[in-house]
Specification:
Layout lengths: L9 H28 L10 H55 L6 H22 L17 E4 L2 E6 L16 H5 L2 E2 L5 E5 L6 E4 L3 E2 L2 H8 L5 E7 L5 E5 L5 E2 L5 E4 L2 E8 L5 E6 L2 E2 L1 H13 L11 H57 L3 H26 L9
Helix pairs in contact: 1-8, 2-3, 2-7, 3-6, 6-7
Length: 402
């Protein structure tokens, strides 16, 4: 049996001790750096898996912050568009009130001309709202990939169609075509027009649809259905529908024709007529222009202004203005829906950011209580090791002689 005697020299023991001290010092330095930074992972080499998780969380947080900034810009545009529609609606209400006033039979044409000037100003004001741009110079009411829509006397910058909302954002524009360029004439199915040669003082409303099937058939009929009035020698007025037998006429009485109930009021002259045809798609600005023209041309050759053409034009204008306001309010309501969606997305982004921050913190942040405790332990251990080494280093054989 061979006995192996390991001989340890003093120099070797010193080297090992210095190595241990250096290792303790390095651990202490790393712990101090980690504690002061508040992070457990300062370099990818500290914990590659945790470093990757933290980096992934930061990337997603940056993306969420970018989505929130984009959403804030979209919200600003939609709010501007919504408030612009509100201002346009107020101007349209003022225009409507002027049209009502213009229908007053006691007004002279001079008084109506004053109304025309105000109506023209409001029409231009509404066109200005429709063409308003955002801070980037882009129309508030627009879409993508469509040609500009022409207006009478100006250009409407809005375009048909619009960008749609996504998972992380809302549309950054409102549909100008839906708000301003899609106003049906009449009641939306059928439109009633006066005969060009009417000389009487009768006018009609837009009619109420009673039988949708019959109204749809009438809309596709060619030529349009006509209602013709005749006055006999005794002054009795009657009317015939599409050449059928004559029926006695009574002002304000509902006439069933083309699947709708139509009310004709006033006194028609012999040969006066009304035609019923399909409703056509118009735009709000054409409606306003026609209303202005009706009021401007209300004067008769004898200086009076009471006429069936004025009353009919006013009734038609009011009905179509109301339809236009409803269309505008629908787009305004859509803007409100977009803003509600934006609030929901903001809440979602906030919750996502908190979760991602928690994931990042769990991956790389240090537990300060544990870290401080460990730091204190390392400091005590390193201090004790230094003191022990200092004592051992001074020992030699001469300390035991004498």
């Amino acid at each position: 049996m061979t006995n192996t005697i390991t001989r340890l020299g003093t120099a070797n023991m010193y080297d090992r001790t210095v190595s241990n001290l250096s290792e303790r010092q390095a651990k202490l330095a790393n712990m101090m750096e980690s504690t002061s930074a508040g992070k457990r992972v300062l370099r990818a080499s500290d914990d590659p898996v945790a470093a990757a998780q933290a980096e992934r969380a930061r990337t997603r947080m940056d993306r969420t912050a970018a989505d929130q900034r984009a959403l804030d810009a979209q919200v600003s545009i939609i709010k501007d568009g919504e408030s612009t529609l509100g201002a346009a609606n107020n101007a349209l209400q003022e225009f409507r009130a002027l049209v009502v006033n213009a229908g007053n039979g006691t007004y002279t044409q001079t008084e109506r001309d004053a109304l025309v000037a105000q109506m023209a100003s409001l029409r231009d004001q509404i066109a200005g709202y429709a063409n308003r741009t955002d801070s980037n110079g882009l129309p508030l009411f627009r879409g993508l990939g469509s040609a500009e829509q022409p207006l009478q006397g100006s250009t409407f910058l809005g375009q048909s169609g619009q960008t749609s909302s996504g998972a992380n954002g809302i549309a950054n524009t409102l549909d100008g075509v839906a708000a301003f360029m899609n106003v049906p004439t009449g009641n939306g199915v059928l439109a009633v027009n006066q005969g060009a040669g009417n000389t009487g003082k009768a006018w009609s409303d837009i009619g109420q649809i009673i039988d949708p099937t019959a109204a749809a058939d009438a809309a596709s009929a060619n030529p349009p259905i006509s209602i013709t009035f005749s006055v006999d020698a005794d002054g009795v007025t009657s009317y015939s529908i599409a050449g059928a037998a004559a029926v006695p006429y009574k002002s304000g009485e509902t006439i069933s024709v083309a699947g709708m109930g139509l009310t004709i009021t006033g006194t028609p002259a012999d040969g006066d007529s009304f035609t019923i045809g399909a409703s056509e798609r118009s735009d709000l600005f054409s409606v306003l222009d026609q209303a202005i023209n009706v009021v401007r041309g209300a004067g008769n050759s004898d200086g009076t202004t009471a006429s069936g053409a004025l009353a009919h034009g006013v009734a038609k204008a009011l009905a179509e203005i109301d339809t236009g306001m409803n269309r505008m309010q629908s787009v305004r309501g859509f803007a409100g829906d977009l803003l509600n969606r934006a609030e929901t997305l903001t809440t979602h982004f906030s919750a996502r950011s908190l979760q991602l921050e928690a994931d990042r913190s769990a991956a790389e942040d240090v537990d300060m209580i544990t870290a401080l405790s460990e730091l204190k332990t390392l400091q005590t251990s390193y201090s004790a090791a230094l003191q022990s080494y200092a004592q051992i280093q001074k020992l030699s054989l001469f300390d035991y002689i004498g």
